[in-house]
Amino acid sequence: MNEAQPQAHDHNEAGPSRRSVLWTAGAAGAGLGLGGLPAGSAAAAAPTAADPASAAGTAPAAKGKTMIGVPFERRSTVRVGIIGLGNRGDGMIGLFLAVPGVRVVALCDPVKEKTAKAAKKVTNAGQPAPAVYSNGDHDFENLCKRGDIDFVFVATPWDWHFEMARTAMLNGKHVGVECPLALRLDQLWALVDLSERTRRHCMQVENCCYGRNEMRVLRMAHAGLFGELLHGAGAYHHDLRGLMFDPNYYEGPWRRLWHTRLRGDLYPNHGFGPVANYMDLNRGDRAVRISSFGTPALGLAAYRKEHMPANDPSWKESYIESDRTISLVQTAKGRVIRLEHDVSTPHPYSRINSLGGTKGVFEDYPERIYLEPDQSNEEWGDFSRYAEWDHWLWKEHANPPGGHGGMDYMLVFRLMQCMQLGLVPDFDVYDGATWSAPVPLSDASIKAGGAPQEFPDFTRGLWKKARPGMDSQKPEE
Fold this sequence. Notes:
Largest sheet: 8 strands, mixed
Strand content: 15-25%
Strand order of the largest sheet: 13-12-11-7-10-9-8-14
Shape: globular
Oligomer: single chain
Number of strands: 14
Structural class: alpha/beta
């Protein structure tokens, strides 16, 4: 098994939104006093992408200074609040507790059994009992109002990401959100504007960017081993049919219902983020357009016919999401990135994770490399021979705790380190917005017969300037 292979319970599996409330359009958007945000941006739980192309053109006027290059405030202890204690949120608690100088001070989930289980993990680690918020779907607002939280981690169903990130920033908190950051372009712009206005970082906590292979390829690419970069590919190929029809896994069942709403790439971040880092998107290059195509939606209906009883509620659902979505992204420098999404047909797990340039190519799943002059005769080389190019994080933490081959811990450790030392984060709100934009853009492109859709320039022109990103130097503490 590849070290980056996920466990079955890996991504955003549950959280504050439960049962019927999750699916109610607009239920999450009321009553937060969001003066100055775009009209319509409050409908975080709306069941469609809602005019996804409307914000793709000219960037709206900035409401604050850029967050590019803005460091965290230095602090010896980072106080964390966690919203969403399903499989993903509960699984991440131990990693926050494993980092010295990090305290988990508050937990939120409307299912009281989940908060009790999570709170016990905190006290078992020798920390004081955390405050618990389990009084309904909106008790996260009270968590965000606390004065003793520095960072809010959001691990809930996708519908709630926008509202929770926005609420955290409005209450003066830095926030990290599981992918996608938001589901509509107007929401992504609202988070960019709010981050700039509040001077709070809003980040896509993309664990795959911290995979060992991804970080090694990143350093090799930046050292010129691939020559001039030409193309890359990333994907989320993960057979989730059994989990999506499991009534106890995706509560609601929130994830399967998205297959009744959109036709595009629902989960681009795991594949897009690493390739964007290789190519320095928003740091000298940027994504400018995307064209997407989708297959018929047959997989979930076929699985339902074979496995689900006639009285199962899923028989009332009509699936429109393409079984496989394939997108081509072109950058300002003319490079091409292929993105794929497939969670409803039988196949092995893969994120593709490929990068090619004028001197050779790397492909993952399984990992293999072909670089001149090291390889010849059209025979793949051994990627393990390039271990010297491992990122300093992987050299310092050779056997990290946690799942996903250690990438989750690397993400948490590095983020908390940046906060403790007052460093600029490895990625920012502009990256998260870019990596999430294919959700609405791919849906719009498929509906338009593959017609290209413009990527917003969330940096408002500042992408032209080279700057540091994931390829960091080990800090002097």
